[in-house]
Each structure stands twice: as structure tokens, then as C-alpha cells.
Amino acid sequence: MKKDIAYLYDKKQQQQPITVLTCYDYPTACLQDEAGIDIVFVGDSVGTNILGYKSETEVTMADMLHHLRAVRRGVTDAYLLVDMPYAADRDVEQAVTNAKLFLSDGADGVKLEGGIEKVPIVKALAEQGIETCVHIGHNPQIHGSKAATHGKTFTKAKRLIEAAAALADAGAKLIVLEKITEEISQIITETVDIPTIGIGAGRYCDGQVLVINDVLGMARPFKHARRYQDYDHLTFEAILQYINDVENGEFPRDENVAHIASDKLARVQKWLKSER
Description:
Layout: H1 5-13, E1 18-22, H2 26-35, E2 39-42, H3 46-49, H4 61-72, E3 79-83, H5 92-104, E4 109-113, H6 119-127, E5 132-137, H7 140-143, H8 154-169, E6 174-178, H9 182-191, E7 196-199, E8 207-210, H10 212-216, H11 231-247, H12 262-275
Parallel strand pairs: 1-2, 1-8, 2-3, 3-4, 4-5, 5-6, 6-7, 7-8
Helix pairs in contact: 5-6, 8-9
């Protein structure tokens, strides 16, 4: 069953947690979709996690479209969400144009970063029937990679709550809460009608999102994440074993090769002799 916004809203109403993971390639998309993830998210974190960029601000529309197309080929059931990269939603016209490019390449919705200043853009996207996920709290495109916790003072907490309400009223369908105190995330979750997706925002959001690299143990650990596998160590050990096997003649073995029938080989050898 293809998961859509109605499905995600129903999960919020039923208080069933929404599961979200970033994804950047076809094989990972196949695994996530088969496992039953609710939202496969092509994040601009592809820049620092896959492409070797120093920050998310280097990611381009071309990068995002390329990875979206790869992920889309592996997704059947999950809701497919994609990030608007840095400066791709600088104004209303540009945001609508770029969002339509993503939808034409298979995205179900687009995500953009920013607070209450993004209300006009969210409204414009909603008017075009484009499903939008907003993202408040820590915004890597705005604040950089060094994340600080948001919502620790009255003024900042009030600003977050007001921004969430304004963005929801403008037509946002989902909202990511990143690095926000658990108490303020809970207030936002209980006061907006749209599903909240937390990352480092506590236990009371409607769903949780993590970067797939963090889940697999491909990056240094963060407090908000949990390693479910030791990809770096296991992959390094596999590479070392491969090098050792090749250098010591352990690979390839007979089971790894193909053979020509003996009578055919005899004909080849006879032909070679005649050519000399």
C-alpha cells in the first residue's frame, strides 16, 4: 500500500509513531521500503555524508535531482520526501519551480528549512497543491553543522511555538523539529494538527528521523542518534580480508571462475598451433 499524507495523519491521530530515515541511493531505498519505513527522505545531508562536501550549502538542485531519481527507483510503498537544497527556495517563484521539478521526478513532498519567514513560500506551494514539510529549530542550511539546542529560554520557546503554528496554518503538511527541547517539542506536537517529526527533539514527537549513516555506524556518534550497526568496522575488515585473499592467492577460487569444455579447449589449442 502506497503511504500518503492521509496515512501519516492517521498515524498521528492513532498515536502510532511515524518512522523516517534519510536515503541517498537505490539499494538502500529498496531495503528501507521493504522493511516498511513510513517516509524515505532524500536529505541534503547527502552532501556531507556521500558527496564529500564540507557543508549542506554546497548541495545543488542537480545533486538532489540525481539522488532523488536513484532513490525513487527503489521506493514502492513509502512516502518519498526530498530536501530543497540551499537557496532553492529563496523566493516564491523559485521555490515553486524547483518543487515542481522534484515532483516530476517522483517526490511526494518537499522539505524546506526556516521559521516564520517561510510562511509566504509555504502558502504558495500549498496553493499549487505541493505537499510541504517545514523544518524548524536547528537548520543546517542556516546555522551550519554545529548544532545548538533550541527552545531553552521563554523567548526562544515562544518563537518556535508561534513559528510552528504559523507554518501549519500556511498549509505545511509535516514539520521537522530538530534539536529542540523535549518539553517545547511536546507542546508543538500537541498544538498543531500536522505530524511532527523529531531529530534530537525528544520522545513526544509524532515520529522520528535519523540519518542512515548514523544508524549504520558510518559516522561519528551523535547524542541524538543510535548506532544499530558497525558499518565502518565491518566494511574495513571486509576490505582488508579481500586484499589479503587476492595477495595470497585465496581469491578467486575454482567456484568463482567459469570453464570451457575440454573438447572446445582442444580445438582452440589446435587452432593456436596452426597460427604459429
